Amino acid sequence: MMLLKTAWRNIGRNKRRSILSALAIGFAFGLLVFSMALQRGQYVDMIQNTVRVQTGHFQIQKEGHFPERLLSEKLDPAGLLEVVDKLPHVTGAAPRVTTAALVSKGEHTFGAAVLGIEPEREKSVSTLASVVREGAFLEPGDRDGVLLGQTLAKNLGAAVGDKIVFIGQGADGSMAAGKLIVRGLFKLGMGELDRSALAANIATVQEAFSMAGDVTEIAVLLDSERRRLESEVRIRAALDEIGRHDTAVLGWPTLMPGVEQGIKIDWNSGLIMYAALVLVVGFGIANTFLMAYMERIHELGVLLALGMPPRRLSRMVYLESVLLVGLGILAGLAGGLPITWYYQVKGIDFGINEELTAKYGMSSIIHPQLEPLVFAWAGGIVLVISLAVAIYPALKAARIRPVEALRRT
Questions:
Q1: How much is the pTM?
Q2: Average pLDDT, stretch 255-259?
Q3: Residue among 262, 349, 361, 261 at smallest CA distance from 52
């Protein structure tokens, strides 16, 4: 405690230098918090947009259906939607049948991903209804209509009002075939889906592919990605209560591993850049620590001459640096936290891409996300680099020769 008190008093002796050092550390920490929070906000928006286009936050499937996705591993939806709708944080749930087929018009034939949907429920889970560019979205009772991706329609030479034919294999191995009328063309902004996807009424797909009223999945959308893990646990417990042990609850990271891996790669790349940024600031901090040491060589020599052990002197100098780093982090919190919180609530409008993002049901506004992970990484990087550069002055203090130090004024 005596050493801590001495180190604290030494910091206060040169207030100007100490304040500048703390502000430099605080600026680096505050900048890291804001940058990392903004990056996390981009991930949240990307996840939200992706799950609303494809999987939902998670899906209920027949145990064993994933990853092969065979139609024979189908799910009886009886009672499941009622259970899901009652759970908190669920904003929508929609049954689906997903399979593959050949789609033809005239002499043109292409492979397609077939999506059977309930039109009204699908609106609460996905952005499909909002990205129809030509024609109209499917009506609930429309058993003959189909929506095509714009690129798929172009390849087929199909337009709104045209008839197309599909051929596939049913869940029981029989041939599935049918004729549908194009009601609308959609553009999701994802090349693969726009090039190969079509959507039809779920009853039509169930009948054609011998599903007998079963589905391949129930997609569930939540009010926030942060609620996903707890909601998965709740839904699993609710399904067990009604005896549906034949089901599996799969989150989007399992269903779309490429998206999660992309986020991890981008986050780790960002950490390297952040560390490089703080390292640059760290050289300035190191220069401040070293200048403070040089200015006090005479004083430190007196302490050694009075009998302070070199190791104790070194610890005192290092402890001063630790206290300065702590003050800097507090300063960074005081400055960076309110700014980041303000933009988390208001959002940052990147209006330059507003028209482009609006076409795909997305937003040009990004909301930074203050998460424990942000503070852990930002604080960790600043602490490690700042305390590392403080080692050198502390080591030099332990090697001071009292006679030489006392000769300096």
A1: 0.76
A2: 87
A3: 361
